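Why do we bother with holo predictions? Because pocket geometry can differ from the apo form. Keep that in mind while you read this record for 1,3-dihydroxyacetonephosphate.
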Amino acid sequence: MARTPLIAGNWKLNLDHLEATHTVQKLAWLLRDAKHDFNEVEVAVLPSFTSLRSVQTLVDADKLDIKYGAQDISANVSGAFTGEVAGSQLAKLGCDYVAVGHSERREHHRESNELLAAKVGAAFDNGIVPILCVGEGLDVRKEGKQVEFTLAQIDGALEGLDAERAKQIVIAYEPVWAIGTGEVATPEDAQEVCGAIRGRLTELYSAELADGVRVLYGGSVKSSNIASIMDKPDVDGALVGGASLDPDEFAKIARFRAHQVGL
Ligand code: 13P
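The structure, written out:
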């Protein structure tokens, strides 16, 4: 099955709503021909909650071919949960995606696999596609246990998820040691774990379902390394941090097919 590549920019705690608007506008302008030339790549940005309304207004008004979503979602529906943002609120803002279980949230907010399974459910309850983030730290990598560690995260976060939902999920393999460090995993490292994730989806669901799920790589992705990573059969896109804040660089990443054919 042909999987549409997804290039998603995780802006993390950067850009106010004015900067976000400017960045999306520039990105859309830079990609204006890409739809025609390389139309089978989906591009998305994940701004801060405070920018979502502005991004929605811009994307809707100008009918931009850019998807957007949030960086987190509450596992709760409503009520006394100060500071949390519910899936229904994100859905009202037209969010297509939401990142769930980014390593920075697992680390700084102690998010457990049980909580993440609830967040995945909350996203689907509201028609939002979760981008479930998994990946090992340096100590696990040094022990050579990256596959079993990452698959245990998959098992935990997909607990109880039915096939109807699972077939829509996006999974991002982001080795923690490669995030924001400039140390990019080799294409072979990315393929090893992304391939193992697809294998686990086959075991949990079916080969047909696993074949349709997009598995992204994240960690120090740049325009100079995206093409070789995207050459790998089980890598279907990228979750880009730092480089997604620069529209020129992010647009080059989104146009990775141009690099692949040497344009
Ligand atoms: P960098 O691209 O800055 O390494 O961040 C990756 C990431 O965490 C995306 O979610």
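The two ends are 26 Å apart (CA to CA).
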